[in-house]
Each structure stands twice: as structure tokens, then as C-alpha cells.
Amino acid sequence: MQFNNLFVLDMANNHQGSLQHGLKIIDMHHKSVLTAGVRAGIKFQFRDLPNFIHPEDRKSSTNKHVSRFLNTKLAWKDYQTLVDHVHNNNMLAICTPFDEASVDKIIELGFDILKIASCSAKDWPLLKKAVNSGLPIIASTGGLSFEEIDDLVYFFRSRNVNFSLMHCVSIYPTPAEACNLLNIKTMRKRYPGVYIGWSTHEPQDDLEQIGLALALGATMFERHIGVATNTITLNEYSSTPEQSLAWFQAYNRAKILLGSTTRDNILQEERNAIDSLKRGVYLKHNVNQHALKHEDVYFAFPFKGGITSGEFVEGTVTSGKKDQKVTETKHQDPTLGRIICSTRALLNRAGVVVHNDNYVEISHHFGMEKFYETGCLLFTIMNNEYAKKILVLHPRQSHPNHMHKIKKETFLVLWGELIVNMYGTSRVLYPGDQLTVNPNTWHSFSSPTGCVFEEISTTAFSGDSYYQNKYIQNLSLSDRKTAISINAFK
Q: How many other CB atoms are found less than 10 A from the CB of residue 48?
């Protein structure tokens, strides 16, 4: 949770080696944070100066960074004052160490999060010191190949570190053609469960990038900050308080525009607009307890109540006079086509491919009309000495309590959320989780979100499913299952 919706505001050396100027930066950018209503942390950079710099370069060096580091040096007690001020303003204190001694100071001064700079992402002595701090870690990935990021992720995961990654471009300032924002999407897929952020150094009036990064799944955002004065000029990649506020507001605007990933929150205003253009169903002639066919009705605008043209089903029995609206319709069961389409959509979303020789069946324990409440769809991949099936549960669908006397099965979740009830308790499984069900074990499962999961088992035998519900148990196999063609899913 430390990494979600987090803005990292990097003060770096923009405090100019002045405690008072550092406090001013915190105060002025904190006002922007409050105005925009975002969650932020102030980030510092620590170097154990002058020890960080080689002795031969401390007095004179051709490296452009040496003089900047030495000229902006702050006392550790001043950094403590700045950290306390960040916390007093209800922001997180974040720090990037560039040497091992600085990690100790980060712990001593009470920072909340440790940040690894791109230039340190392959500095294994420093990384080992950082993970031993026990702090959550944000790691930037500027200039790294995916194989090198893989190494970093493995390093963190093998040590149970709470970490996140920043897609970063280490060009100052970053031109548009170097942003490569699609890397965010790739990193989310490559490192599931890891928060991915966007840390770059674009010109500070560029606001398009943050909305695009958010749309691609970034959950953290980093920029350099400072305050300009009569004697201090900020570089192209450091934000003034006004620019940081505009950046936050661009983020808030993008959040509004992106909205929801579901279509469950359609506004009533939109529904009313659509409903105002619907057609009603009206009688072409007088009828008396007549089973309506298409030739008995016409569809006309505007809709005057009753049923809409989309709700009309032939066979509806009604009485009425010519031009009278039709108010009743037969119950329409979920069609096989709708089940196929919605299942195919879930498979596509899960990235799961089914093949031509897979056997497919629909389980509908209380009838097809209640399929989306109770049932599931099963693809048999193989059934030999061992068996494998892919099961698809739709959102809010459940599969009733049952057991197998012969089959031993293991569920492996590929996508979505699976709730398995077994031994009187519920367990929630997420992608990658697995659970084994032994023979003669009552179990049921459901999904609030929809779920695609594998069932890997011993040989599956027809008739080896026993249901606790007596109504279901007394159904024939053909009454509770319908076989369909795999070609329907192409």
C-alpha cells in the first residue's frame, strides 16, 4: 500500500545546501499537494560527503557532479530537521542512498521508504545494504535491459523485500521520443504483483505523460522539485510549486477521464438518454388471448411503456386492441450464444487459449436460465492417466457443493479470484495459487470477479460427481450438462 497512488517529489540538491531553502521547498510544494488532494512524499539524496568522493577529486575534478555534490552539502542534523518537517506536514520521507554509510543514516533519521537510483540498480554491495534496512524499496530502472531488471526483481523477491519499480528514463531533460511509456504495460505483465511507476525528467510544462502513464497502469509518479529565487534558477526537469500543482491536476483529470474498468457504473443520465430513443411494441390488430408472432406487432418510436422492441419474444400470450402497447413478454433464457460470447470474453481477458480438440461442456445445475447464478463452463484438455481441464466461472457465479469418490484434483488459478469452500471454511485463491481436493471431500467454489482456473487431476470418470443438493443429485447427466462445439470459441 505504501506505493499505491504515490507522488515522489525529489528535492535532490535543489535545497542548495541551505536548511532554510529546503524548508521553503517542502512548505511551498506541500501547498500544491494539499490543493490537489494527492498523496506525496519528499525525497532526499544522501551521500556520505566528502568520503563518497575519491580523495584526488575532492579539491579539483573534471567530473561535473563533484562540485555540485560538495557545494550543496548539508549537515546530518539539518537533514533531521527536514525529515521532521516532512512528517509534520503528513507526507512520507523518502531517501536515495548512493553509498552504504548513507543507508545507516536513512535508518537513523527515520525515513519511511528507501529509493534506489537507476545508477545504483546494479551496485550489488549497496543493494545488499539497502535490503538489510528492512524499509520498503522503490527501484528506478533507467538504462536497464529487461534481463537486468529481471536480476533486480529476483534479488528483491529472494530476500522477501517489499519493493516496487519505476520505469525511468535517465536523460535530462527527457525528449518525447525517449519516454517509451509502453514499457509500463510490459513491466506490469512481466512482474505481476509489483507496483510499477513512472520516473522521468521531461520538461516540466509537459503534462501529457502522466495521463498516459496512469492509463498504462503506473501507480507511482516521480518528479524533481525546487523553488526559484532571484539567485536560484531551476533546471528544465525541476518543477516549481505552480508546475507541480499543474502536474497533480493533470493526474486528477486523467483519473476522471479513465474512470472505471467495468461497465457496472453506467450513470442514470446515460440510461435515460438511451431509453428516450427506444422503440415500443404495439399491436397491428385486435387480439384476444393470442400467442403473438412478429406479424402481429409493429415497433414504433417513441416508447410509451410496456416492453421495448428488444424485449419482445414470439409466443407471448396477450389481449388488446389495435395500436395498444404490449406490456408482457415471455421469459427469455440465456441463449447459448450469450454464454459462448461472455465465456470467450473472459478467456481473452485471461489470455488463455483453447484448442480445436478440446471437449467443452456447460454445467447448469438449476437450468440454463440460471446459468449465470449456478454453473460453470469446462474445457477438457486431456483425460488419460491424469487429466486436465480449464474451468471458467463468470462473475458472481457459483458451483454447488459436491465431491468425487475416485478423482483427486488440484485447482490452479490462472486469472481472477476463486473462493473454495472446503472442510467448512473458505479460502480465496489468486493467480498462481493452488489447492488440492482429495477424494470424498465436499467442496464448492465461486467467484466474485470471474475466474479462469486449471483442474489437474487423476483420471476423470463420468458419474464420479456426487452433489449434496438432492435435486441436483437426482438429475441425469444430460439434464445438468450440455456439450457444445469448441468451434464456437474461435
A: 17
Give start-end residues of each CATH 3.20.20.70 domain in the chain: 6-258
As a whole-number percent, the residues of the chain with pLDDT over 90 amount to: 83
CB distance 317 to 291 below 8 Å: yes
Contacts of residue 69, defined as CB under 8 A and 6 or more positions apart, other chains included, come to 13, 47, 49, 52, 53
pTM of the model: 0.81
Residues 459, 376: Cα–Cα separation, whole Å = 20
Question: Tens digits of per-residue pLDDT, 124-158?
Answer: 999 999 999 999 999 999 999 999 999 999 999 99
> CATH 2.60.120.10: which residues of the chain?
336-489
Task: Write out the CATH class of domain 6-258.
Answer: alpha beta
For 192, the grid coordinates are: 505481476
Please give the Cα distance from 185 to 217 (Å, whole number).
6
Q: What cell numbers appear for 291 in the block?
A: 400467442
Banded pLDDT at 59 (limits 50, 70, 90): confident
For the chain, state the CA radius of gyration. 31
Check pLDDT > 60 for residue 490.
no
Contacts of 193 (CB under 8 A, 6+ apart): none
- In this structure, the number of other CB atoms found within 10 A of the CB of residue 61 comes to 15
| Contact assessment for residue 287 and residue 318, using Cβ atoms and an 8 Å cutoff | yes
Helix or strand holding residue 362 (H, E): strand 359-363
Report the 10 Å Cβ neighbour count for 204.
23
CATH superfamily to which 336-489 belongs: Jelly Rolls (2.60.120.10)
Residue type, 92: L
Measured distance CA(173)–CA(206) in Å, rounded: 11
Q: Which of 64-68, 208-212, 380-384 has the lowest mean pLDDT?
A: 64-68
